[in-house]
Specification:
8-stranded parallel beta barrel; alpha/beta
């Protein structure tokens, strides 16, 4: 029997490559027990032509849309670009326009948030790819990894302040335009999956503090956070308290090694590590599963059952805390 997923939403990244017709994609997700979806950045206008009638009839709710939305076939404004941090002023303004467009769609659909990849410290080559190859072959403590990591970190640290300023300026513009339109939509800046991308948890807090009063918060992607912790960029447990009161939403998935978008607890067979994110899940106003297509309906159900049982136990133990201790459950959710 499929579990009713209640307030939880589900990203279309799971099955978008299996469908050409948007309504078919949504129906498959509804079959998992979800009443709400996040429309990801690969959703096309053609797909929306069959999804929008479902929204209007109340057959599906939209929790969030993922910038740039709908899909735009231009790598300058894709998921891995400088985007809101462009030094080229024309490109930066275009990025702001596209974010405002995403917010317009979110408001039209009654969504609560827009997820945005705000930017990065640019490198000539993909140093993250090189680092991950060294990590897998030699480990994070190897001399080769440590040497390249320090090289990456030196450039990242020297330039991140500049790009954080550019990103904050762009977000300030976008939020002002969104507020002027009267759209009740929050912008969530997402933790990222490559070491040169922004923001870290501390960078996110700095940007949010600068834009006090704007509808902006952190979109905490747990799988990305796990990868960045393993690579050495930040410590989720140590930095979590900085952003706990500034969560716009979350992407729920876990990483196995440096491979992400797996079902929490199920694919790692680790019943402890992911518990640190439970207080964030409890606090988040928008909760979205973002899973890869390899995750089966049975695995999704099992993972959700484990996660929600652990959350119930956390509440019974005293509710939200800064970090969660390991909450022991077997696969049935019973201690």
């Amino acid at each position: 029997m499929v579990l009713d997923k209640g307030e939880y939403s589900f990203s279309t990244c799971w099955n978008i490559k299996r469908h050409a017709v948007g309504s078919d994609m949504i129906e498959e997700i509804r079959g998992l027990g979800f009443k709400r979806v996040e429309l990801n950045y690969n959703v096309t206008r053609e797909m929306l032509s069959t999804i929008e009638p479902m929204i209007e009839r109340g057959e599906i709710g939209i929790s969030s849309v993922h910038n740039t939305f709908p899909f735009i076939d231009d790598p300058d404004y894709g998921t891995d670009s400088v985007l809101l941090g462009f030094d080229d002023e024309a490109k930066r303004r275009r990025a702001v326009d596209l974010l405002v467009q995403s917010a317009e769609y979110a408001a039209r659909y009654g969504a609560e948030a827009v997820v945005v990849h705000p930017g990065e410290v640019p490198f000539e080559a993909n140093i993250d790819q090189e680092l991950k190859a060294l990590y897998k072959e030699h480990g994070p403590d190897s001399p080769a990894y440590r040497s390249l990591w320090e090289e990456m970190l030196e450039r990242r640290d020297s330039l991140s302040g500049h790009y954080a300023e550019r990103i904050a300026h762009s977000l300030e513009e976008a939020c002002g335009r969104i507020a002027a339109k009267g759209w009740d939509v929050t912008i969530g800046i997402e933790t990222r999956s490559r070491c040169y991308q922004m923001p870290t948890l501390r960078e996110a807090r700095g940007i949010i503090d600068r834009l006090q009063g704007a509808k902006i918060g952190l979109w905490y992607d747990f799988g990305h956070g796990m990868m960045m912790e393993r690579m050495g960029l930040y410590d989720n447990a140590a930095d979590m308290s900085l952003i706990m009161d500034h969560i716009a939403g979350i992407h729920i998935h876990e990483s196995v090694g440096l491979s992400d978008h797996w079902c929490p607890y199920v694919h790692s067979n680790d019943m402890a590590y992911f518990d640190r994110f439970l207080p964030v899940i409890e606090a988040a106003p928008v909760k979205v599963y973002e899973l890869k297509s390899a995750c089966t309906p049975e695995e999704i159900d099992r993972s959700h059952g484990l996660l929600t049982a652990k959350l119930e136990r956390l509440r019974a133990a005293g509710g939200r805390t800064g970090t969660a201790a390991h909450i022991p459950f077997n696969e049935s959710g019973v201690e």
